[in-house]
Amino acid sequence: MLYLVATPIGNLGDVTLRALDVLRAVDYVASEDTRKTGLLLKHFDIKKPQIAFHEHNEEQAGGRIVALLQGGQSVAVVSNAGTPGVADPGFTLVRRAIAQELPVTMIPGPSALIMALVLSGLPSHSFTFRGFPPRKSGKRRTFLEIDKESPHTLIFYESPHRLREFLADALAVYGDRPAAVANELTKLFESVRRGSLSELIAQLAETEPRGEYVVVIGGRIQ
């Protein structure tokens, strides 16, 4: 069986009992970063052989995992935090397993995009997750233009190094829409800033962004 196991996005207390049961029971754990996953496993006194499985070796490592599954072994896939397969490795492996008619299931749990969406106060009944935008402004604006006319709430992941530039490009493309910027979710210094894009840009000019961010932007009002 192939298990996709969601892991905490910050607070280890958010791990589910079922996730721990699966991690203890499987033969292997496929990890986006074996060092980070090693710390998680050690915290819960779980000892399992790990397989490095990340965006740079998905093809090779995925083949190894499929071979293990075909041999009757069980494998749990985890990302550094949150749900594997969503802006993290996992999608290609699921597709390969399905093509080989191998059993696949998921152990649900923490997801930064869902938490940020709910806390943003923006409409959550219909949304589009766009993941990480391109790093350079020109390509980023082209990327943002795709959803300019969309009525759905938009969700993005962004690094602290490009957060201000991303918000500036979003303002240029979408206009001064309502938005929210979530940071350090589930951690001690969790924060959710809300306001218009211009207001958020002004707020963030006064502080140095740190950690990973989720940006939620309101859709176009029809």
Number of helices: 8
Low-confidence stretches: none
The total strand number stands at: 10
Task: Report helical residue fraction.
Answer: 25-40%
Mean pLDDT: 95
Distance between the termini: 46 Å
Strand percentage: 15-25%
- How are strands sequenced across the largest beta sheet? 3-2-4-1-5
From N to C, what is the helix and strand string? EHEHEHEHEHEHEHEEHE
Give a short account of the largest sheet.
5 strands, parallel
The CATH fourth-level homologous superfamily of the largest domain: Tetrapyrrole methylase, N-terminal domain
Q: Any idea how many domains?
A: 2
CATH architectural grouping of the largest domain: 3-Layer(aba) Sandwich
Secondary-structure class:
alpha/beta
Overall, the morphology is elongated
Our Rg estimate from Cα atoms comes to 19 Å
In CATH's first tier, which class of the largest domain applies?
Answer: Alpha Beta
CATH topology of the largest domain: Cobalt-precorrin-4 Transmethylase, domain 1
Which short descriptors sum up this protein?
222 residues, Cobalt-precorrin-4 Transmethylase, domain 1, Methyltransferase, Cobalt-precorrin-4 Transmethylase, Domain 2, five-stranded mixed β-sheet, 10 strands
Provide structural commentary.
The protein is α/β, with parallel strands linked by helices and 222 residues long. The protein folds into two domains: 2-107, Cobalt-precorrin-4 Transmethylase, domain 1 (3-Layer(aba) Sandwich), CATH 3.40.1010; 112-217, Tetrapyrrole methylase, C-terminal domain (Methyltransferase, Cobalt-precorrin-4 Transmethylase, Domain 2, 2-Layer Sandwich), CATH 3.30.950. Helices cover 36% and strands 20% of the residues. The protein contains eight helices and ten strands. The strands form two sheets. A five-stranded parallel beta sheet has the order 3-2-4-1-5, sandwiched between helices. A five-stranded mixed beta sheet has the order 6-7-10-8-9. Helix 2 (34-43) links the parallel strand 2 and strand 3. The longest helix has 13 residues, at 58-70. The termini are far apart. The model has no long low-confidence stretch (mean pLDDT 95). Its main location: cytoplasm.
